[in-house]
Amino acid sequence: MRAAASAQAAAGEPFVTEPVAYDAILLASFGGPEGQDDVIPFLRNVTRGRGIPDERLEEVAHHYRHFGGVSPINQQNRELKAALEARLAERGIDLPVVWGNRNWDPYLKDAFAEAHERGFAKLIAIGTSAYSSFSSCRQYREDYALTLDATGLDGALEIDKVRQFFDHPGFVQPFLEGVRDALAAFAELGHAPENTRVLFSTHSIPSTDAERSGPDGHAYERQHLAVAEHIMSSLIPDATNTSDDIAATAVPAWQLVYQSRSGPPTQPWLEPDVNDVIAALPGEGVTAVAVVPLGFVSDHMEVLWDLDTEAKETAEEAGLAYRRTPTPGTHPAYVDALIDLVLERRDGIPVAERPSVTDLGPWYDTCRPGCCENVRAGFKPALCGVAP
Predict the structure, then answer these.
(1) pLDDT beyond 70 at 243
(2) What is the CATH number of domain 169-324?
């Protein structure tokens, strides 16, 4: 463990059950452009170190150009920050929230500087990604370490993080409600369960990253599949109910799909692609498809473009009824879940008392050795975990 961990976490145990007197919450996110002039500089930040010329970046900028150069993610984080602050006040919890992004204003360095200026020394970080992989966990931890060194605040700030929250009931609840609503709407339109498909969609990642996600490998896929299975199992009618409407509430088939691939064609990424699956559904007798953005916490660009634009168009071309279910956003259950995750660490809640809806959780407080390696770049210093 780096010295930047709290004393309670510095030993590197998987779970920290000693109370920690945190001064503030660090809300950490990806960031996004907020105007046409921001798009290329933002993409340079995202792809830094890869030597991609601006001409190539412009080819992939059309998603942002389509929306006026504005990613919705920053506004969504402003709303989440405000919702957290309001709910913390309602619950009588005195923990300020500072916000910083990895790739755009306000940067993590700005959040670290703000925390230091306000006299905060112990931060508990919430990364706006629920699953285990390099890009959704370790890269955040590497950026914490890099930013701490760059700001000269190593030794002045201690930073821990909440566990990956993929199976916390408050994160899962909005998705469960969305699937229920979508299937009810399809039923009203006359689409039978056997003619309906539920696709749980998440960001594709390189296959090598997926193989090394989590301490034992393949955690990224396993976590998504476990949550999706929980959601669909929750929709199964009570076996003790013998009423005639059980057939009408049968659960349709489902599968995990991937989206937003950005690597070269020669590099294997997780498949199948959501559009390829949708296009093939009519041949399987499907007439309606619900797409669940299970890998995303809010309606940012990958949701608005890849699902609300491209996947919707693919469904229309295939003659399918289409619904995209909501992301957690600022759903009250999700906001409370994030606060409860902070309180787990602040109060040293025993592992047996931490909620999870799958057999995989609750996940580790302290990331394990070798967790979520980036094969292309190798291990870099990272906070909130055991080296490397």
Answers:
(1) no
(2) 3.40.50.1400
